[in-house]
């Protein structure tokens, strides 16, 4: 790696992949979404190669990721199947660009706290805006208030719970830093409950992983599936049923997440 010019471009995709996708990145347990591990990391170096031909910084690529994420939520404001399908495509594109910002930073050796912060802003804001857009879909056009306040309020509560669930992981890092503890390794042993009922429930949750439904990718797929079902059973009925089901499941997920954290080594000195 020392012979690589961080201001130049890679000689091949293989060279770029070796620098931008080292084993410690590909092996991260929680930092990689399943789409990245399954297929996006195979394609991201080609888009990263293009970014490296431009003066766009790694933080600039993260900015593009944020805009794509916001566009994902905005696409859901297009009624019917086509808005939901566009949101699915944009959701995948957001995750692809999300792979690229880190790859650009690793090639150019420009990783920084600002980049991490912007990445958090992108994911937090996108995953809050998507439920809000779902609430507007459930209320249906044209919106009529105060009758439609029920669906927009449920959507706002869902957005709040999703953001709180994401924030719990960051709260762990803040708590450890304030306590003077070392940074957690991204391994199963660090995050797993130490035993007892919580550990058994966590293992059972692998078979019904509803707690994983609240990422932007999963949410867009759910809304798209609801739009297809709605062709048969009618809209906004299906969107309303989906929204009504997602909120209590999200509350259960955040409660389980909190209990799992408290039962793990993450908050132990």
What this model shows, in words?
The protein is mostly helical and 269 residues long. The protein has one domain (13-267): Up-down Bundle (Four Helix Bundle (Hemerythrin (Met), subunit A)). 72% of the residues lie in helices and 0% in strands. The mean pLDDT is 89. The two termini are 36 Å apart. Helix 1 (13-20) crosses helix 5 (80-108) and helix 7 (149-178) packs parallel to helix 11 (237-262).
Summing up helix and strand content along with how strands pair, one would put the structural category as mainly alpha
Specify the CATH homologous superfamily: CDP-alcohol phosphotransferase transmembrane (TM) domain
Domain count, please report it: 1
Helix content percent band: over 70%
CATH topology title: Four Helix Bundle (Hemerythrin (Met), subunit A)
Write down the oligomeric state.
Answer: single chain
- Kindly provide the name of the CATH class: Mainly Alpha
User: Average pLDDT value?
Assistant: 89
Q: Low-confidence stretches at least 5 residues in length (pLDDT < 50)?
A: none
SSE order, one letter for each helix or strand = HHHHHHHHHHH
Tell me what the CATH architecture is.
Up-down Bundle
What characterizes the major β-sheet? none
N- and C-termini, Cα separation: 36 Å
Shape: globular
Q: Work out the strand percent.
A: under 5%
Q: How many DSSP-defined strands? A: 0
Number of helices: 11
Radius of gyration, whole Å:
20 Å
């Amino acid at each position: 790696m020392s012979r690589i010019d961080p201001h130049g471009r890679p000689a091949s995709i293989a060279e770029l992949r070796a620098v931008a996708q080292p084993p410690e990145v590909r092996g991260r347990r929680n930092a990689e979404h399943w789409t990245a591990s399954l297929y996006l990391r195979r394609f991201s170096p080609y888009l990263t190669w293009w970014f490296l031909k431009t003066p766009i910084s790694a933080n600039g690529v993260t900015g593009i990721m944020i805009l794509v994420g916001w566009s994902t939520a905005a696409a859901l404001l297009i009624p019917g199947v086509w808005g939901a399908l566009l949101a699915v495509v944009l959701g995948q594109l957001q995750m692809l660009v999300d792979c690229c910002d880190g790859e650009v930073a690793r090639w150019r050796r420009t990783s920084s706290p600002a980049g991490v912060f912007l990445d958090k802003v992108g994911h937090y804001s996108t995953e809050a805006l998507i439920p809000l857009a779902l609430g507007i879909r459930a209320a249906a056009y044209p919106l009529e208030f105060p009758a439609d306040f029920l669906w927009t309020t449920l959507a706002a509560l869902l957005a709040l719970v999703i953001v709180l669930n994401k924030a719990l992981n960051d709260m762990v890092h803040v708590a450890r830093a304030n306590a003077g503890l070392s940074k957690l390794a991204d391994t199963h042993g660090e995050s797993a409950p130490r035993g007892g009922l919580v550990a058994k429930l966590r293992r059972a949750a692998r078979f019904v992983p509803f707690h994983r439904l609240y990422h932007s990718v999963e949410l867009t797929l759910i809304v798209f599936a609801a739009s297809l079902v709605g062709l048969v059973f009618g809209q906004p009925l299906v969107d309303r049923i989906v929204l009504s089901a997602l909120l209590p499941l999200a509350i259960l997920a955040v409660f389980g997440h909190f209990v799992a954290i408290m039962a793990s080594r993450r908050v132990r000195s």
